[in-house]
Records
---
Amino acid sequence: MSETTTIVCVVCPVSCAVQVEFEGNGIIRTDHNQCKLALEYVNDELFDPRRTLTTSLAVDGGAKPLVSVKTDHGIPKHRVMEAMQSLSGLHVQAPVHIGDVIVPNLIGTGADLVATRNVAAA
Amino acid sequence: MIKMRSADVAVIGGGPAGMAAAAAAKEAGAGSVILIERDEELGGVLNQCIHDGFGTKVFKEALTGPEYAAIYADKVRDAEVETRLEATVLELTEDRVLTVLSEEGMETIEAGAVVLAMGCRERPRGAIGIPGSRPAGVYTAGAVQNYMNLRNLAVGRRVVILGSGDIGLIMARRLTLEGAEVACVAEILPYPSGLARNVVQCLEDFNIPLFLNTTVAEIHGAKRVEGVTLASVSGMDVIPGTERFVPCDTLMLSVGLIPENELSRQANVSIDRVTAGPVVDDAFQTSNPGVFACGNVLQVHDIVDYATMEAEIAGRSAAAYVADGTLPEAEIQIKVGDGLRYVLPSHVSGLDAVNFTMRVTKPDQNRAIVFSSGGKVLRRLKQQALSPASMARVRLGKARFSDTREILVEVGD
Amino acid sequence: MTDKFDVAIIGGGVVGCAIARALSRFQLDVVVLERDVDVARGTSGKNSGVAHTGINVPTGSLKAKLNVHGAAMFESLCRELDVPYKQVGKLIVALDESQVPDLESMQARGLANGVPVLDIIDADEIKRLEPNITGYAAVHAPTAAITCPYSLTIALAESAAENGVEVMLESPVTAISGEPGDFTLTTPKGAINAALIINSAGLASGEVARMAGVERWRIFPCRGEYVILDKSVGDMITRMVYPVPPKGGAGLGIHITPTVDGNILLGPSTDYIEDPEDVDTTVDVRKQLLKEASEFLPTINPRDVITAYSGVRPKLTSASEGGFGDFVIEEVPERPGIMHLVGIESPGLTAAPAIAEMVAGWVTDKLSPAVRPDFKEGAHTAKRFREQSREVQTSLVDNDPDYGRVICRCELVTRREILSAIENRLGARSINSIKYRSRSMMGRCQGGFCGPRIVDLLIEEGVPFDELNLKGDGSWMFFDTSKGLREGHDSRTGEAVIER
Ligand SMILES: Cc1cc2nc3c(=O)[nH]c(=O)nc-3n(C[C@H](O)[C@H](O)[C@H](O)COP(=O)(O)OP(=O)(O)OC[C@H]3O[C@@H](n4cnc5c(N)ncnc54)[C@H](O)[C@@H]3O)c2cc1C
Ligand SMILES: Cc1cc2nc3c(=O)[nH]c(=O)nc-3n(C[C@H](O)[C@H](O)[C@H](O)COP(=O)(O)OP(=O)(O)OC[C@H]3O[C@@H](n4cnc5c(N)ncnc54)[C@H](O)[C@@H]3O)c2cc1C
Ligand code: SF4
């Protein structure tokens, strides 16, 4: 028996209210999504909810006090706070460039924490 | 001494809109393009929006604000746009003379065309009139975001948020992630004013309560905020007996953005009462020929991609204006019908397809956005859900503009 | 610490600061003791900012004398100290014929008090002067002027400090003992010794008098709330527009006042309150102000309100008594050596220069000091960039690049002006101290944009982020660094989290 539910796609601000029909652990069809980016999100949200974590880290010797960072993939939603805890106290040495991997395989999720901003050395 | 110079196109504001407009103007053949930004770097509000969700339309990818800004900063550099940082435009005359102040001194620039891209500012406490004392600890959400994400300063430890605007929701998550406690979000309207996406991933993910039909009736604390009185409202009036005290050390306001149009007014550009931004045609030309507007100075955007897209048209139009001395007349009037707060642009030339942007007056389901002319429907676009929080965007092909002088846009069935 | 002064002035309002500056022309050791983090934080910072002509005060009263005399001194004082002053004039507008006798009696009283010019004008003339105002007839007082009350108070204090007066902030006087020539004033910062005392403690002047054993004055606080309208509608009027004062009321009625910065004030209300420090603003009064002001100026739109504030009048008459209470400026015979200034309500701002002259005369009679030969008259602060012509602005930046960085965009305040405010002579470092000295954070965004930039400058100038405060002890701005919140220590210094 298939089931239907509505999931708000959070990938971008359009916030499509996506209708999903699914059975077991597979999606049969989706409706009301403006683009394909919803598919992976909805699938994850149903069977393995994930979030991209964005935050910042303190920079040593930089022209700015902080560098912004993100996980390059979603990490399990229930591990977000644990990931934040693991970053506590972490300092990054300037210079930093967009895309630099700051923490590989963050708390074993398989996602790398990468810089999203350039910070020159002071 | 006041220095004097000229430029084909001058772009005011180096946020995403200004960057895209400047690069597009240059690529469309404008000889000299100058981009003026008062901050020390390009990017505008994106620099402090370290969350992701930018670029899904243009790049089919959810980038963070700084990443999205960096792409356009590179474009500006590659296009050889002259960029002036830490320079503030003090004045703009009707005939497009800019007065610019920087550490190098005072300068006037005579521009062939001007693109307004000054963004918007936040509505402060006074404007919404919360009564009570005036302790430290009342901040606007954008200021909290700036302190937290750019300056490594945390404004408090236990926060109540008034207003469910997007910046407030984003900051609810941000504060929670960093270890502060967000007690609740109070929204005076019966529905959230921020996007559904942000209600889900910023509040629901973290079990932060959202109280609708609720406002802050009073702020407590002499020196620093010690708490607020929340109260339920009917319409805009507090319902007696519903008051309750919530202890907190910070009240964060997310009660809306106001386009920054002081310069536009100086240049005698007509301002729309609803959007609080300039009235424009489909070339994004304002009522003052040769002056164009795009981005948040025009209307408050929730999706940067659309700001970028309209800015590119504005930049190309500015280049065309400089080349040709004029642009085609835009004589087809767009009328705002039932269910809509506004529709942009307000008049079009009919020579090209147009992407109309608009906001509805209230949340609704299973309706349609209907374009008609003299009773004849030109386009009906079914909408499963309509929300004032999301800007709707509807394209009308060039063919639909033939033989019309006036098009009505409304929410219909 | 015990310091010996000739004169101790209690209260850094416009009155205390004007007295301090008047005394700084002499070779005297003078101290101003102010309990707040800065001067001008009491009533002197929260009023209509009007240099009144002297129409509304009973002929023959001390108020009338000091008002008219103060008004005559005002312009040159403002010019000396580089404080804004604009003689915009005032209309007191009658809405119908029945109020015309009131206009006539006001005109007669004003002229008797010594107001230089007062005319009665008709409806057409009102329209010609103020096209947006509707009225039946009006008193026109062309010499009425507006100023910036906190700028004046601060400038007086800083000029006094420049000329050797010690201004001690966060120094409430809690007890007074001793005799003339040898008084002791107790403050948390130590005991202060002074030969003479001036009690210019505003709302607390009755209480200060009691500290010195003088029980006779009771002060009834009466709050006046205002709303401020955005500059974009500042050109709705050019003159002050007042109603005919309500009979037996505690104030002049809700008026519409342009400010020297181009905003418009609506207010003040009149509400007797219990706590003199209760400067809350309320929803009801806000509505009332908008409603009453709209009777004269129908174009007022609630959307143009940028903020609200209130000030408290130190009345010597209670709500039930109503009526008039004159200024009290008295040395009490059985407790000599202390000059008490009590009930200095409106027009206390206007009268301040004259009050200062009078009180300085009392001091010089007693102490016969020599004149200070090197008295410095002028201001020493940065120029207000926004008020200069383009030519002057250009030469300012050419000589000092710090004038080229705009910090507050709404009010056009430059880095130089913020730095000058931070380096002020009184050592006031609160965010509000910077605000009132530079006008930054006072515009339509109320600091949303410039706040972070001013915080940067304060930190650059050596104020640690965890000591930054809005208005003194306890009004902290930042709990911690963003990173420190979670890490349990300050990520800038590696030190443990600050306990709050
Ligand atoms: C908190 C928040 C979250 C958002 N989240 C998303 C999201 O997830 N996804 C998404 O797609 N969009 C998002 N947006 C929307 C997007 O950021 C905006 O639409 C976009 O930044 C608007 O760009 P702009 O260039 O018009 O304005 P701004 O970015 O505000 O830039 C205006 C620039 O003009 C400069 N300026 C102004 N006046 C002058 C002057 N007189 N002289 C010189 N320079 C001047 C300013 O300094 C500023 O840099 C978000 C916006 C906010 C505020
Ligand atoms: C609503 C309103 C509108 C007004 N409008 C006008 C107008 O337009 N024109 C006009 O001429 N006048 C006006 N006034 C009157 C004018 O503002 C006052 O007369 C004037 O500011 C009084 O100054 P002050 O120095 O006596 O008192 P304040 O400014 O109150 O100063 C007293 C100071 O003493 C300090 N203090 C108190 N106790 C102690 C202590 N124990 N130790 C140390 N310090 C202490 C306080 O902190 C305060 O700073 C208005 C007043 C109000 C309330
Ligand atoms: S489906 Fe596409 S457009 Fe809709 S919210 Fe998701 S990412 Fe945005």
---
Amino acid sequence: MQISFTLNRRPTTVEVEPATLVAELLREQLHLTGTHIGCDTSQCGACVVHLNGLPVKSCTLLAPALDGATLLTIEGLTGAPGSNQMHPMQEAFREHHGLQCGFCTPGMLMTAVALATEKPDLTEADVRHGLEGNICRCTGYQNIVISVMAGAAAMHAAKGE
Amino acid sequence: MKPFAYHQPDQIPDAAKLLTSIEDSKLVAGGMTLIPTLKQRLASPTALVDLSKLGSLKGITDDAATITIGAMTPHAVVAASKLIQTKIPGLAALASMIGDPAVRSRGTIGGSVANNDPAADYPAGVLGLGATIITSKREIAADKFFLGLFETALELGEIITAIRFPVPVKAGYAKFKAPASRYALVGVFVAKFPDGVRVAVTGAGPGVFRVPPMEAALSGHFDPSAIAAIKIDTDGLASDIHAEADYRAHLVTVMAKRAVEAALS
Amino acid sequence: MGNVIGIGAAPKRKEDQRFLTGRGNYVSDIKRPGMAAGVFVRSPHGHAVLRGIDKSDALASPGVIAVLTGDDVADDGLGSLPCGWGITDAKGMPMKEPPFPMLAQDKVRFVGDMVAFVIAETPEQANAAADLLKIDYKVLPSVVGVLEAVRPDAPQLFEDVPNNICCDWELGDKAAVETAFKKAAHVARLSLVNNRLIGNPMEPRAAIAEYEPGTDRYTLWTTSQFPHVVRFLMGALVLNIPQHKLRVVAPDVGGGFGVKQFHYGEEAVITWAAKRVRRPVKWVASRSEGYVSDRHGRDHVTEAELALDETGKFLAFRVNTLANMGGYLSTFGPNIPTNLYGPLLGGVYTTPAIYCNVKVVFTNTVPVDAYRGAGRPEATFVLERIVDVAASEMGIDRVEIRRRNMIPKEAYPYQTPVLVQYDSGDPMGCLDGALVAADVKNFGARKAASARKGKFRGLGYSTYVEACGLAPSRFAGRLGARGGLYESATVRVHPTGQVTVMIGTHNHGQGHETTFAQIVSDKLGVAFENVDIVFGDTDRVQFGMGTYGSRSLVVGGAALSKATDKVIVKGKKIAAHLLEASEADIQFEAGKFSVAGTDRIKTFEEIAGAAYVPHNYPLEVLEPGLEEQAYYDPVNFTYPGGCHIAEVEVDPETGTVTLVNYTAVDDVGTVINPMIVEGQLHGGIVQGVGQALFENAVYDEGSGQLLSGSLMDYCMPRADHLPMMKVATHSTLCTHTPMGVKGCGEVGTIGSPAAVINAVVDALSHLGVTHVDMPATPNRIWRLLQNASLPVAAE
Ligand SMILES: Cc1cc2nc3c(=O)[nH]c(=O)nc-3n(C[C@H](O)[C@H](O)[C@H](O)COP(=O)(O)OP(=O)(O)OC[C@H]3O[C@@H](n4cnc5c(N)ncnc54)[C@H](O)[C@@H]3O)c2cc1C
Ligand code: FES
Ligand code: FES
């Protein structure tokens, strides 16, 4: 079937089998490999993207659900294509060493941005709770939590300007 | 995943017709249960009937004594609903405890109730509040709806359209998460109505169930102390690597007390 | 002009840009033209005779290219998966080393054992064809626990391995220990289980193999921590591919923790298959597939006894352990519960006599091998637990008993009775620092506050040491290593003065691209951004042993430091020539070569440029170019250590243990980048906390089924399980590594399980609880409380 959607701010039309997961579509057909697959039970969050502004697990989403929707992946989180301008949340992860091997990072960032968008004044407990669907094996989460709080503050400061 | 056809009807009768006319077809709502099942190749339907284009299945309506939640309402919407937070805070709390933010963006109340996973949260809320399941064919009382492990009163081609909850005087939910999956190892929903109290337990057994002795005790005195000494029989309770039946039985009492505390707070 | 960023600074990581923007390059991201998909068919039984495989339906299935089985492996005369260590028993007899075929032949020995490889155009087609294979198994009873496996009537995995014992290993002076026990005023005893773990790097394993008939060359992309070792083991010992015809690439790897430091059968099968089908072939494991094929960790059953005199001084320590190896010997398997375990049983204490016996046992489970810490967390756990048991039995404060037995700072270098000699350390300093940082003084008030909420609060200590920086080859060779454990680095200075480093370690989260660049920037005075680190490709990097055992900075960094020194030596020769001075008069500092006592200077860039424009070089004494290579083989292990203090709160109603505070003060030697060291400690600690509170790989005895076979049943630590940890360093310098570094990759995982469990036991001690096995799950704690005696010392 043919589906049309907005992918990282660009209109996109693709031909897909209905039995295609969005994670597969992104990685195999659209060559956007920043969205990772870390598990087969929808538990790890490595694959989180934004569907119509909400965080969703792209490994547990069928491609037909994209039709008419807006999808944002890690590749679209940075500024305009080619600008190399990072999102405040990305900057915060770099600043606070919120990543090690980088495998969980795209999902963490997408979850974090959604969390910070939903709730402006995040507490540590909010962040820890908000990350319950994202597993990281490397960092022990401490620097991720610190990064998310700093990134959220930066996002809201930027908006306030 | 095996290939399948995909339908996105925009009328309930069309959806029902697709379901009955295509052999091995299945409804898909949020997909948070169905898609993992397809991925593990535990099911291989020939066609999926997607409910997302059925506008009438979404939204929350209020008519003083009841709140009606459309079947396609995601957990996150219920959790964040000011109306539900005010009128049945225990139900909003329950929704906020399901899975994680990404699961709550997609998973729906209709899907959860139709699926009747023995460790799911919503069945406890639906049974505990004595809600009514509204389908494309009829209305079914919660007490008649949940029939056991993944089994419900739904017939072939029957679609849940909404769930109607009576507004209680007080209600609370307490969940003891299974360590890895974070579904309910034991979850207890307690609701106090003018004519009595209902207590519903999920996670502990092969399906959600009520606890009449606790209901009687709480109807007399709505306080955790009223049920502290009530023990649940371990017969028929689940045992697995995370918890044996006696531990689950014990947790039912503990979580019931905490649900009452939550209702009172 | 960029900046020099040197040792001790915390620049932001070079590798982060690509990871933050979704532009990492992991194996599963790679696509090759004409690529086919492979899936492994694995045994659903723990133990069975493999009577035959009928491929015909699978071969006829749409899109199928080939179906390969153990018979094909045998027909092609391929080798068995090698074990890198050969240990010997007390009598000097070599361990039993049955073959480990890359695809099962005759028998399967664990759920997940590979039986066939199906190659098709797409993964879906390969999966569909795999379902059509007819495999005839005669199911046998399985044995999964070590205690059961050594019983006389237990199912036997191999005909020629009686009682499933691979090796009955020992270390230490048994007689001296027996004599000491006779004199003891008190003997503390402890039986414990060290739980079985699944490493769970977030990136599942994957591999792509390609064969180029034109050059007869193979390329394998694999999720590996040590591509050169894979090239050697697979090429030389399994597939008979000449080393120069085989390229192994390990690009970005999403976490390893040991799980990716073995040569896996999947790598050999896919490489062999790529030539057979003349197509690139890709395989990506699912997480659940990883659970039954990634090597597991730990799994010990131990009896320990500590003899003490009347003042609480340790006289002798005796440990008997049964260690699970799983169904076959993995790459480092037998080394872990022996050589990396026994020598650490001295800990930070002066115990004069130690004896350790380890029976290494085969069972119908996934092969067990190194997992972060590997052997050393097991040793630390036994020792730090029994110290607490002894303290409580003798009525001595737990900190005090540690102090009475600790090796004083002045006593270093310190020779233990179990082979190793610690070069440096200050355990007392770490302990004192941690006591302050953890605010132990006010613990009583916090405990009382918890009690008012109906919770039990406990505090647990772990003062520990580990052997890192694997490894001195001479030492390892004596213990049975079949290879060397040195590291190599090449420093290539380009004509413009920028530097490319080729190093044999592998970066999969540790921040080497940053830390190693800091070392070069510091030593050569070149800008940090002008240094790039290349790793993970056998065609680009000369040689290397990879990353594990907290060795990268200690051994790899030392090789890099040596190679950099050689660049300076060569640079001085060039400067002497250009400045018309004697080589002995040339000084190098902060990126400048100068003639001592003059203002005649050449910058590093000028020297680099001149090195490649040798117009009037004295060519007989000076070669053009500026590129140096060094190999470094350490003279000893390094011995990081420290003191960890955990504070937990137990909810007696549900049995839930909550970690409320965690403090670590560690001695990791010189800190190159404090930000990265902290990150390594955080991650390491949480993996240890995971072992202590959450993680458990559980098998069903009899059927051999893995009951915790996915993330739905294997509990990983999550953000909401943890408090903010306090970590600090209290370093003494390693006396034998070039920069004084000791390594930090594993310390967190080694110190933390004992600290957490000691805290849990402390919280419950008033109920008569003396030990809790890991993981301290709510179910287990509740059950313990059900059986616990009434309060022995009500507070
Ligand atoms: C990682 C993860 C964690 C989770 N944790 C929890 C948890 O803690 N607690 C919990 O309760 N649940 C949990 N879930 C399940 C989640 O709540 C699901 O959303 C829910 O159970 C099913 O809802 P769905 O809309 O996704 O249904 P789907 O997956 O789309 O459908 C489920 C089943 O219901 C049928 N169905 C769907 N809608 C209807 C309808 N309107 N009428 C009739 N039949 C219908 C479908 O045919 C299908 O058989 C988790 C899921 C995931 C992936
Ligand atoms: S890959 Fe989607 S949740 Fe793990
Ligand atoms: S950074 Fe490696 S899994 Fe999170």
